[in-house]
């Protein structure tokens, strides 16, 4: 557990908490580690969540499959990111989506009740962690609105340009790597893969961008 302290120190949940205090709180919050092989389901739609998760290694995909097997990739969880805060409120209901390991992964789990309840030892940073949880919820809502802005675009071309533009700005570079392969990107944007690939080819021919696998370069008009 100690090896994950440097990672946890950089997370939003433990923002402002020192190394020694993080170690103390791991015990206070009943922390545990679970590992998942590529393709393994970490959470299933309909489950009731009792723990807050921080991804330590690998990548997890939040996805939903309909009755006919059509997959919609909603988001990706990367190391240091949290999952489960939306279900931290009592009676928030079961999980709405599946969470699947996109590669071999390891995650840290924390008891929700212990996060929300001040412990008998009155940890000095417990209140800070509660605040950090709700700051994280606010940030996740902002990112959800951002994704909705991609979905609101009328065409596959506009969705692609909107997403790639935001990624370039987020990474502060015209050359950047996205966390999705072609099928995953199509699922994320809810577009047909073939149509998306054709549109990427047109954008490259027009000199707007270039790409190799999941690496992209945007050019000025």
Outline type: elongated
Total separate domains:
2
Q: Give me the Rg, rounded.
A: 19 Å
Average per-residue pLDDT, rounded, comes to: 88
Q: Please give the CATH class of the largest domain.
A: Mainly Beta
Unreliable stretches (pLDDT < 50, length at least 5) are: none
Put the structure in a nutshell.
The protein is α+β, with helices and mostly antiparallel strands.
List keywords for this structure.
221 residues, Jelly Rolls, Arc Repressor Mutant, subunit A, 2 domains, 4-stranded antiparallel β-sheet, 7 helices, 11 strands
Description:
There is one protein chain. The chain has 221 residues and is α+β, with helices and mostly antiparallel strands. It folds into 2 domains: 2-144, Jelly Rolls, CATH 2.60.120; 153-218, Winged helix-like DNA-binding domain superfamily/Winged helix DNA-binding domain (Arc Repressor Mutant, subunit A). The chain contains 7 helices and 11 strands. The longest helix is centred in the middle third of the chain and has 26 residues, at 126-151.
């Amino acid at each position: 557990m100690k090896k994950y302290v440097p990672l946890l120190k950089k997370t939003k949940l433990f923002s402002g908490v020192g190394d020694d205090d993080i170690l103390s709180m791991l015990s206070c919050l009943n922390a545990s580690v679970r590992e998942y092989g590529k393709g393994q389901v970490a959470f299933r739609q309909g489950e009731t969540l009792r723990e807050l998760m921080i991804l330590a290694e690998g990548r997890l995909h939040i996805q939903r499959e309909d009755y006919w097997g059509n997959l919609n990739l909603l988001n990706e969880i990367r190391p240091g990111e949290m999952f489960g805060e939306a279900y931290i409120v009592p009676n928030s209901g079961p999980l709405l989506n599946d969470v699947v390991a996109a590669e071999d992964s390891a995650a840290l789990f924390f008891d929700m009740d212990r996060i929300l309840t001040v412990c008998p030892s009155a940890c000095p940073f417990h209140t800070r962690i509660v605040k950090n949880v709700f700051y994280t919820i606010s940030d996740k809502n902002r990112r959800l609105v951002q994704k909705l802005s991609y979905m609101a675009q009328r065409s596959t071309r506009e969705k692609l340009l909107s997403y790639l533009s935001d990624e370039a700005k987020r990474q502060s570079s015209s050359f950047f790597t996205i966390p999705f392969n072609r099928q995953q990107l199509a699922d994320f944007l809810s577009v047909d893969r073939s149509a998306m690939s054709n549109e990427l080819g047109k954008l490259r021919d027009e000199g707007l961008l270039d790409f190799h696998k999941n690496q992209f370069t945007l050019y000025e008009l």
